[in-house]
Amino acid sequence: MGISQTLSRILSNLFQNKTARIGIYGPPNAGKTTLANRIAEDWSGTVSGTASEVPHETRRAVRTGNITITGSNGRSITIDIVDTPGVTTRVDYKEFIEYGIEREDAITRAREATEGVAEAMHWLREDIDGVIYMIDATLDPFAQVNIMMIGIIESRKLPVIIAANKIDLPDAAPHRIRTAFPQHPVVPVSCLDGTQIENLYEEMVRHFR
Amino acid sequence: MPHRCAGCKTLFPDARHLRDGCPVCGCGKFVFETGRKRAQKNEPLQTHAPETPAPLPVTPTREHADNGLEEPKQDSDSIESIRILEPGRYDLNLSRLIETDDRVVRVGSEDTYHLDLHSMVRQKKKK
Known about the structure:
- The complex is a heterodimer.
- Chain A is of the alpha/beta class.
- Chain A contains seven helices and seven strands, in the order H-E-H-E-E-E-H-H-E-H-E-H-E-H.
- Chain A has helices spanning 3-14, 32-44, 93-97, 103-126, 144-155, 174-180, 197-207, and strands at 20-25, 62-70, 76-83, 90-92, 130-136, 160-165, 186-188.
- Chain A has a six-stranded mixed sheet with strand order 2-3-1-5-6-7, sandwiched between helices.
- The longest helix of chain A is centred in the middle third of the chain and has 24 residues, at 103-126.
- Chain A is globular.
- Chain A starts with a helix and ends with a helix.
- By secondary structure, chain B is an alpha+beta fold.
- Helix content of chain B is 19%, strand content 21%.
- Chain B is built from four helices and seven strands; from the N terminus they run E-E-E-H-H-E-E-H-E-E-H.
- In chain B, strands 5-4-6-7 form a four-stranded mixed sheet. A three-stranded antiparallel sheet of chain B has the order 2-1-3, with no helix packed on it.
- In chain B, strand 4 (82-86) and strand 5 form a beta hairpin.
- The longest helix of chain B has 7 residues, at 35-41.
- The radius of gyration of chain B is 17 Å and the shape is elongated.
- At the A-B interface, strand 4, helix 3, helix 4 and helix 5 of A face helix 2, strand 5 and helix 3 of B.
C-alpha cells in the first residue's frame, strides 16, 4: 500500500468518512448477483459478478465500492455493495450434478459453496452495516434459512430491507413475504427486468445511512 | 432454532409455530433466540405446547421438495460449525458460524470432531 493510500485511509478513519457496506444476502438462486449487477449498472456503469441459474454460482463475496444512489427527494447515499454467496443450511454436490456438472467438479463446487457460506456469515458479523435480504417470491418464504437469517440479522440490530424478487414470474406472491415478515419493509421487485427497481432504490435511500 | 413468542414469552425449540401462531396465546410474532441468550436466562425450552392440537407442518421449499432434500434441523446448542456428511455434502450451523470464525467440524454421524486450530489462533480483527 502506497503512502498516499495509507494517508487517505488514516484521514478517512479520522473523520469517520466511512462508506456504509450493504450486504445482499439470501438463499441460493434468489437473485442476489442479478441485483448487485443492476445496482452497479444503474449507478456506476460497472458489473459486479456473473449471474447463473446454477445454485451457488457466487462462492466468494464480491464488493463493488462507492456507489451513490439518489432518491426522488434529492437525498443521496454512498454505499459499498457486497454480493454474498447464497446462504443455506445444507450443501449437497448432487444439486450441481443435476445441472450437468461432473461429479468431481460438483464435489469441489460444494466445498467452495460451504466456504462461501462461512465467508458470508463472517462478513455479516464483521463488516456489514445494512442488509438487503433477497427472497424468491415464487417460493415459500417460511423456509428455515429465511427464518434463521432474518432472526440473525435482527439479533445483530442491522437495518434490513427484504426484496421480494422475481415478480415478473406468474406464480410470484410477494404478499406472502409481507405476511411472513411484517416487521420489515418488503419491496416487490424484478431484478431481472427492472420492474419496480426504483422502489427499492427509494427504500434504500430512506432506510440506510 | 428456538423462538420466543412475543405475546406470552413462551420459548419453543423450533420454528414449527411460526406459520400458525403461538399455540398458547395465538400471537403471530416470534423473536429468534440464540442458545447463549437462553443460557444467560437459565431457562428450559418449551418442548411441546400444552393441550393444543398438533400444528400443521411447515411446507418445504420448492427447491428442497424438487430434489428430495430435507433441511437439516438446526440445534443452536451444538458445538460444530460444519458437519461433513460425506465428501461434497455438508450441513452448516448458521448460529455457530455467525458467532465465531473458529471452526469445529463434525465428521459423519459419529461424534468425531476436528478442530481447525489455525482458525482459533488467528488474530481477531479489531473493531
